[in-house]
Amino acid sequence: MSPARVSPEDLKSSNEIFKVIFESAPDGIYLNDLRGNFIDGNKMTETLTGYPRQELIGRNFLTVGLLPTDQIPKAAVLLAKNLAGKPSGPDELILKRKDGTLVPVEISTYPAKVRGKAITLGIASSASIWTSSTGAASTCGKRSRPAPTTS
Predict the structure, then answer these.
(1) C-alpha of 44 from chain center
(2) Is 73 a member of any domain?
(3) How many helices (H) and strands (E) does the chain have?
(4) Contacts of 7 by beta carbon, 8 Å cutoff, 6+ apart
(5) pLDDT for 62
(6) Which domain holds residue 91?
(7) What is the reported pTM?
(8) Interval 16-21 mean pLDDT
(9) Is the residue at 4 inside a domain?
(10) Distances (CA, A) of 22 to 19, 27, 31, 44
(11) Which of 6, 62, 96, 124: disulfide with 28, CB 3.0–4.6 Å?
């Protein structure tokens, strides 16, 4: 059996599909290196942080101002897990948006490799968009999306 060949058109279509999924995801999806420097993020990452991704790319999340001072040690512990090749989360953190407002988030991170280089894939969900069936904010790990409303 010969290996399947991927046409340039198929590859372009696959990249377009990935881009739509990445950009349309309801959670913040971001990539950083093992030192905590941002590589990329999706539109929801921009919404959660208040920063355009171009202002974050290449900057370190421990020093860019995204975390209140009391959250930095917790984030450093999570980064250390990634350095050891282990996933983290879900963990609750408080982000400091560009405008200074604080937003609670639930973050999970996963070690990954791209072209042989170790990176971290992070997924961040705003605690304010997750509610329990009673409508109250729920605790970490027990969140469920609000049920769609029908008209």
Answers:
(1) 8
(2) yes
(3) 4, 5
(4) none
(5) 82
(6) 25-129
(7) 0.76
(8) 89
(9) no
(10) 5, 9, 12, 9
(11) 124
What is the residue whose two structure tokens read 């072209």?
115
Whether the CB-CB separation of 121 and 112 falls below 8 Å is answered with: yes
* Bond before 111 cis per omega within 30 degrees: no
Q: CA 62 to CA 36: how far, in whole Å?
A: 7
Alpha carbon distances (Å) from 86 to 1, 39, 43, 134: 37, 19, 26, 34
Looking at the 3D structure of the chain, how many domains does it have? 1
Residue 124 lies in a domain: yes
Asked if 111 and 85 touch (Cβ cutoff 8 Å), the reply is yes
Identity (one letter) of the amino acid at 141? G
Question: What is the rounded distance in angstroms from the CA atom of residue 76 to the CA atom of residue 12?
Answer: 38
CATH number at residue 108: 3.30.450.20
